[in-house]
Each structure stands twice: as C-alpha cells, then as structure tokens.
Amino acid sequence: MTQVDRPVMAFGWGAVIGTLGGLIGLGGAEFRLPVLIGLFRFAALEAIILNKAMSLVVMASALPFRAGSVPFAVIADHWSVIVNLLAGSLLGAWFGAGWATRLESRTLYRVIALMLVGIAIVLLIGHDADGSGVPLMGGIAQTIAGVVAGFVIGVVASLLGVAGGELLIPTLVLLFGADIKLAGSLSLAVSLPTMIVGFTRYSQDNSFAVLGRNRRFVLVMAAGSLVGSLVGGLLLGIVPAAILIPALATILLVSAVKVWRHG
C-alpha cells in the first residue's frame, strides 16, 4: 500500500464501517479494529488506541444527531440510570486500559479475538431485545447489577477501543426497561465518559504516540466513518435485520479468526 493509497483506503474503509454501524445503531469500532490490525498492519495496542480516538469522534457526533428523536431533556430525566452504569464503567475502563498496556502482544491479540466472538454472540441474541418498559429487577439488586454490568462493559470498551453500545443497549433495555430509541441515546451518554477515561489511561503509555504519527490517517478515517454513519442511517429499514445481523456477526467471527492468527 503506497502513501497515496493509504488515505484513500482509510476513508473508504471508514465509510464502509460507518455504514455498517449506522445500519445497526453502533459506532462501527468492532469492525474497524480488525481492519486496523489486518489491513493497515498496526500493532494490537496501537490499533486499540487509534480505534478509540476515531470512536470518540464518531460517538460525540452521534448524540446531537439523535437529539431530534430523543431530546437531551429526556436523557437528563434518566440521570440515575446513567450514573448507575457509569459507577461501574468508569472503573472498568481504567482497569481495562491498564491491563491492555501490560499484556504481551500475543496475549492481547488473543483477548481481542475472543472478545470479538463474544460481541458477535451478543449481536445475534441481544440486538433485537425489545423491552416491555418493565425492568428485570428493581431496588438495590438493580443498582448492584448495573454497577457490575457497567464494569464489564467498561473493561470491554477499553480493551477493544469501542463504545460498548452492543452491550449497553441490551443492558438498558432488559435491566432498566428502556425502549430501544432511548436506550441508544442513554448508551451514548454512558459511553462517552467511559471512553474518555480509557483514553486518558492510555495516554500514559508510550504507544499513545501512535496518534501523533498518524494524525492525518485518524482524521481521514474518522471523516469516512461519519459519512458512512449518515449513509447507514439513510439505509436503515431498507436492509432487513434478518439478513443484516447474521451477516455482521459472521464478519466479526471471521475477523476474530484473522486477529487470532495474526497474533
């Protein structure tokens, strides 16, 4: 890949991944990470940091984009749910980033591969979760479950450089009884602080310098992701979920195998 081809490929893959994310209501970071490792040949930790930087750009724009359907006032009304999940996810993000910087490269590739498999499974069984408006539990049990779920999601988000929406949305729907549209926006409200904490922790590692060396690459791929997210949103409803979700899960499984072998 020449220096001329690299920005073109970065924008193109960013657009493709953004479209996939827009179609299913995610940031697309799950699909971006294997591309950064397999196609652009970044080391695992560098790919995670780059992925997190681009995810931050995409997800920060998604919340205001959704304000027409889910106003900020509605999100604010559910502040207790956000705080409940953040109590675990912020801690999980810090620990997850710390573990990633200490793991051997080979081990980190294997961890990434296994998590991609896990996300594929969650995508298959959890994406169509439809809340009845009634949470699975209440009171102190719900609070504890929210903190534990938040911690796990924070760790996964940090280790993969993703927003964690594929895990947060089913949690919000099933555990707190949120409807799917509200869950998407609440997920963003939890994801952004969680990602910032993980990003801050990664900034203490020498690998963080990859952002300075690849500033143009990050901006070009993030721009492609934003364009793709818009296209994906416009295509929403045209591609049937019965075909789309299994296809995307298959992509994740294939990517997991490639990342495992790469390690």
Which segments are poorly predicted (pLDDT under 50) over 5 or more consecutive residues?
Answer: none
The tally of domains stands at 1
- What profile does the largest beta sheet have? none
| C-alpha Rg (nearest Å) | 17 Å
Helical percentage: over 70%
Task: State the helix count.
Answer: 12
How far from one another are the termini?
21 Å
Strand content: under 5%
DSSP, total strands: 0
Query: What class, by secondary structure content?
Result: mainly alpha
Note the run of SSEs as H and E: HHHHHHHHHHHH
Oligomer: single chain
Query: Shape from CA axes?
Result: globular
Query: Could you report the average pLDDT, rounded to the nearest whole number?
Result: 81
Which labels suit this protein?
mainly alpha; 263 residues; 12 helices; single chain
Question: Could you characterize what this model shows?
Answer:
The chain has helices at about 5-25, 30-40, 45-65, 70-75, 80-100, 105-125, 140-160, 165-175, 180-200, 210-215, 215-235, 240-260. By secondary structure, the protein is mainly alpha-helical. It has one domain. Helix 2 (about 30-40) packs parallel to helix 12 and helix 5 packs parallel to helix 9. The longest helix is centred in the middle third of the chain and has 24 residues, at about 80-100.
Structure summarized in a few sentences:
By secondary structure, the chain is mostly helical. Helix content is 79%, strand content 0%.
